[in-house]
Amino acid sequence: MTHFVVVGAGQAGASLVARLRAKGFEGRITLVGDEDAPPYQRPPLSKGYLLGEISRERLFLRPERFYGEQKIDLLTGRKVTAIDTSVRSLTLAGPDGAEESLSYDALALTTGSRPRHLPAAIGGALKGVHVVRTLADVDAMAPEFAEGRRALIVGGGYIGLEAAAVACKLGVAVTVVEMGERILQRVAAPETSERFRQLHAAHGVDLREGVGLERLTEGEADAGDGRGDGRVHAAQLTDGSTLEVDFVIVGVGILPETELAEAAGLAVEDGIRVDALGRSSAPDVWAAGDCANFPLGEGRLRLESVQNAIDQAEAVADNMMGAETPYVPRPWFWSDQYDAKLQIAGLNTGYDRVVVRAAPEAAEDLSAPVSYWYFRGDTLLAVDAINDPRSYMVGKRLIEAGRSPEPAQVARHDLPVKELLG
Amino acid sequence: MAKITYIEHNGTEHVVEVANGMTVMEGARDNSIPGIEADCGGACACSTCHVYVHPDWVDRLPGKDSMEEDMLDFAYEPDTQRSRLTCQLKVTDALDGLVVQLPEKQI
């Protein structure tokens, strides 16, 4: 029987195996993940789950019984340590350390990404220093989020800002340091950064932009012999100031998880290099999701998003069954901070101007709808919409249809946004 | 606990029991009912969990907030009365007997 193996049991892996069955693949399917939980949603980790509003089971993308019902062998808590593409076989480390091999007819790598850590040399390995990626990460940090404690968030990207919002809601005193000149610098226009700056300031967050972390220092052990207690106690910042902190959340980006692919000799270049169908450089090895670097137009792209994890994985599933359909992303993202819902359609790379669409009251009222429309010349590239689902949906439709509204019309808040659809 | 009937676009009916506190979307997801995608996992960010509520139930459900209303306006063939996003419908005993129909496609 034909055997498809999928390595990496996150959103992409789960979507891929479900799609294979939905499309009628009748062979054997094995899904391997190194975490203990079945595939789960990561976005709520830095939002509702951290707030304690969503239970662990509700994060699961499918109930555990789904895999049995669909005859999918789900191996959790298992790490793939090597792939031999010449004989189509991989090596699995068991929970007891014993190794076994598994043969495949086709292999898909949906290994995702891993967070960047702070170097141990600047205190990155101290207790109380956390990253946000897995359920285990968030379970470990959740007890830190207690009223009256002091948190330092390193990095003003979406993960850091979402963690800041949760911390604030739970009564934690929050400082965010962003070494770039502004928060969200890598992903959004100055206008969007400014809106979120105002939002966090209104909730009492101490936001410091253009300020990096020099090092984290530990407290003194009780023995009083000058030795440290191994737990973060203070942060020295690049502006020369020192902050006392109880815990630290590090949100300084993620890296594609390509170690296994590299060791197996696959072409890797900011992710596992795949073609438009999702094929890697090795025969019968595919990749999808955060870990995959795919061609788009003249260039190449790697996306870190739920949309890409689902859609690319489904395209790869279809192609593993012979569809030969190139993957063309239709990017969308979201972020929830306090009561602000940010929805993003498209990719803003290469924009040369931003058109703001906002009612006059939006200047005073941070909950009012506002949207930022990214153009390159006359071409609409992306929309950031905050509490403004109508602008998001209109922008998404236009971008997917390859249509661009008149920038002057976009700015007219007195005109219903739907009229931009023509 | 509520017994909920999901009717696929092709007419296939699924009757399942969904625990209080879950959403109508999660009831579909956890019972592998095709036709509700819920790509965003229930964050009211994607509008791919759209259904048409049975006419008898339209007035018996809690109202839509503006976010749901706005997202629905752009769903696939929305109905001003019957369309709902199932991620925004929390299950209580009062939803026992609810019947929802799935659209031909989500977006």
UniProtKB/TrEMBL annotation, chain A:
<dbReference type="GO" id="GO:0005737">
    <property type="term" value="C:cytoplasm"/>
</dbReference>
<dbReference type="GO" id="GO:0016651">
    <property type="term" value="F:oxidoreductase activity, acting on NAD(P)H"/>
</dbReference>
<keyword id="KW-0560">Oxidoreductase</keyword>
<dbReference type="InterPro" id="IPR050446">
    <property type="entry name" value="FAD-oxidoreductase/Apoptosis"/>
</dbReference>
<keyword id="KW-0274">FAD</keyword>
<protein>
    <submittedName>
        <fullName>Pyridine nucleotide-disulfide oxidoreductase</fullName>
    </submittedName>
</protein>
<dbReference type="InterPro" id="IPR028202">
    <property type="entry name" value="Reductase_C"/>
</dbReference>
<keyword id="KW-0285">Flavoprotein</keyword>
<dbReference type="InterPro" id="IPR023753">
    <property type="entry name" value="FAD/NAD-binding_dom"/>
</dbReference>
<dbReference type="Pfam" id="PF07992">
    <property type="entry name" value="Pyr_redox_2"/>
</dbReference>
<dbReference type="InterPro" id="IPR036188">
    <property type="entry name" value="FAD/NAD-bd_sf"/>
</dbReference>
<dbReference type="InterPro" id="IPR016156">
    <property type="entry name" value="FAD/NAD-linked_Rdtase_dimer_sf"/>
</dbReference>
<dbReference type="Pfam" id="PF14759">
    <property type="entry name" value="Reductase_C"/>
</dbReference>
TrEMBL record, chain B:
<dbReference type="GO" id="GO:0046872">
    <property type="term" value="F:metal ion binding"/>
</dbReference>
<protein>
    <submittedName>
        <fullName>2Fe-2S ferredoxin</fullName>
    </submittedName>
</protein>
<keyword id="KW-0001">2Fe-2S</keyword>
<dbReference type="Pfam" id="PF00111">
    <property type="entry name" value="Fer2"/>
</dbReference>
<dbReference type="InterPro" id="IPR001041">
    <property type="entry name" value="2Fe-2S_ferredoxin-type"/>
</dbReference>
<keyword id="KW-0479">Metal-binding</keyword>
<dbReference type="InterPro" id="IPR018298">
    <property type="entry name" value="Adrenodoxin_Fe-S_BS"/>
</dbReference>
<dbReference type="GO" id="GO:0009055">
    <property type="term" value="F:electron transfer activity"/>
</dbReference>
<dbReference type="InterPro" id="IPR036010">
    <property type="entry name" value="2Fe-2S_ferredoxin-like_sf"/>
</dbReference>
<dbReference type="GO" id="GO:0051537">
    <property type="term" value="F:2 iron, 2 sulfur cluster binding"/>
</dbReference>
<dbReference type="InterPro" id="IPR001055">
    <property type="entry name" value="Adrenodoxin-like"/>
</dbReference>
<keyword id="KW-0411">Iron-sulfur</keyword>
<dbReference type="InterPro" id="IPR012675">
    <property type="entry name" value="Beta-grasp_dom_sf"/>
</dbReference>
<dbReference type="GO" id="GO:0140647">
    <property type="term" value="P:P450-containing electron transport chain"/>
</dbReference>
<keyword id="KW-0408">Iron</keyword>
<comment type="similarity">
    <text>Belongs to the adrenodoxin/putidaredoxin family.</text>
</comment>
